[in-house]
Write a structure and sequence with these properties.
The structure is a single chain. By secondary structure, the protein is an all-alpha fold. The chain contains 4 helices and no strands. The protein has one domain. The mean pLDDT is 87. The chain starts with a helix and ends with a helix. 72% of the residues lie in helices and 0% in strands. The radius of gyration is 21 Å and the shape is elongated.
């Protein structure tokens, strides 16, 4: 089965069971979006180091208990 065949089969199933409106809503989740995630991620994480990550994980685990 080709990828096109698989997509067509999936679209057919989705349009019948949940309905066409729900199919469109589902498809919208997988849009291209906007921005440059890789560049933005580098900005978010530029000052983060492994020690900080471990400390935060331990803090959150302790908080859950």
């Amino acid at each position: 089965m080709t990828l096109d065949d698989l997509n067509e089969k999936a679209n057919d199933a989705l349009s019948k069971e949940p309905g066409p409106t729900e199919m469109v809503r589902l498809a919208q989740q997988f849009g291209d979006g906007t921005g440059d995630y890789t560049a933005e991620r580098k900005q978010w994480l530029q000052d983060l180091n492994l020690r900080d990550v471990v400390r935060e994980v331990k803090r959150k685990r302790k908080k859950r208990r």
